């Protein structure tokens, strides 16, 4: 069955899906949805995801959206995905779900809205929104110390004391990478105090070489352009 | 292994866990965390959930928080839970994950914040926050028509065209029940236009008799008190 991944490499959850597929030798067709041109709101794309958001996948008869749901599906449906990505052990799996659920209302809620409203809204033809950015910043600055002192509290290279990455590491690190779109000093203000977080990002990059950087290349390029302006 | 459920019956995700256990004959000790007195922020409770939120569970060595993660764990760890709650079929399961992930950033994001900031903040010693309520209302009024026209689009009594409830039905309906805390005319303004949503709420109540109403009784009582004021 053919797998199509609809996304855009500047979208953090899209990158997570693409990196996961590449790291696990899952063949897929990458269909780029042109977000700046509003293609995600087109009737054609809404046939695939009525919510008008990327990423989404089609696999056989299944149309699926929401990146965590997609990661779990791919880890379960494709043989050959190593157990550490989404462990069959119920307790380990439960804790990964807990991280992913926490992510929704905390890190992602803060980071995505902060970057959008303080930096990249004009790319989508929208004005910056300092008030929404300030509100989002509260969630971002509360989330990072929780990752540092709670989710990374156990010895181990990854979240929850694991020595190999899970879908939770991939999802959260791709989210934090979005801070690359900020000015360097702003990014450093957020991440600077959190040494474990910084090390964990490096561990994740290293564990998913060369796919991590290859898929992030589009982000690095947009970042360089924004920082030059 | 003993199961302890830490929660409060006026908390919508706490109710979902308790109802799930009762409906599936899972024995548990209910430990009420006195939210108005701030017991969820106590050092004792933060030993169980460092995020200081209910619900949380302890099952053997496992401490777990985030209600969706808990529901999935309970459905997986206890034999005798009927398959419809969290189907083993990968496609059905994927779609349930998709609903639950969508819920985080949409219905729950809107409903919980609207009810809190427009109505019950004073119970926790906080002022009402009309601006935050207005922001949350946008998410609430966008979410209900999506449930009506998308998640309930297929024939069937429950979400995704199912004829028996899943953990997604339980989670989302418990969230919507929180609107009982609003004045009746405000609640009706939100729910009135959505006949399928209203029918689905009734279907869920009926399918999980008598546990649904029994666990909601505390909410109905608080609602009656607030409406008298």
UniProtKB/TrEMBL annotation, chains A, B:
Q: Which residues form a coiled coil?
A: none
Biological process annotations from GO: toxin catabolic process
E.C. no: 2.5.1.18
Boundaries of every GST C-terminal domain copy:
89-229
* Catalysed reaction, written as an equation: RX + glutathione = an S-substituted glutathione + a halide anion + H(+)
Q: A Pfam family name for this chain?
A: GST_N
Instruction: Write down the superkingdom of origin.
Output: Eukaryota
Which residues does the UniProt record annotate as the domain GST N-terminal?
Answer: 1-82
The UniProt keyword set, sorted, is:
Detoxification, Transferase
Would I find Iron among this entry's keywords?
Answer: no
Task: Drop me one GO molecular function for this one.
Answer: glutathione transferase activity
Class of this enzyme = transferase
Q: Which family does it belong to?
A: Belongs to the GST superfamily. Theta family.
Protein name in UniProt: glutathione transferase
């Amino acid at each position: 069955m053919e797998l199509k991944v609809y996304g855009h490499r500047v979208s953090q959850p899209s990158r997570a899906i693409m990196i996961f597929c590449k790291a696990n030798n899952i063949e897929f067709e990458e269909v780029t949805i042109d977000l700046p041109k509003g293609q995600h709101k087109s009737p054609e794309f809404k046939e695939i995801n009525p919510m008008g958001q990327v990423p989404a996948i089609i696999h056989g008869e299944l149309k699926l959206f929401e990146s965590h749901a997609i990661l779990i599906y791919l880890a379960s449906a494709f043989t050959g995905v190593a157990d550490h990505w989404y462990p069959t052990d119920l307790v380990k799996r439960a804790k990964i779900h807990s991280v992913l659920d926490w992510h929704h209302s905390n890190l992602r809620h803060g980071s995505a809205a902060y970057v959008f409203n303080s930096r990249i809204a004009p790319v989508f033809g929208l004005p910056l929104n300092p008030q929404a950015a300030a509100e989002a910043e509260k969630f971002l600055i509360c989330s990072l110390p929780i990752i540092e002192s709670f989710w990374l509290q156990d010895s181990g290279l990854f979240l929850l004391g694991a020595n190999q990455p899970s879908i939770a590491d991939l999802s959260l690190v791709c989210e934090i990478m979005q801070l690359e779109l900020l000015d360097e000093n702003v990014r450093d203000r957020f991440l600077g105090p959190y040494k474990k977080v910084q090390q964990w990002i490096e561990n994740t990059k290293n564990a998913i070489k060369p796919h991590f950087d290859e898929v992030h290349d589009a982000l690095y390029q947009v970042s360089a352009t924004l920082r030059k302006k």
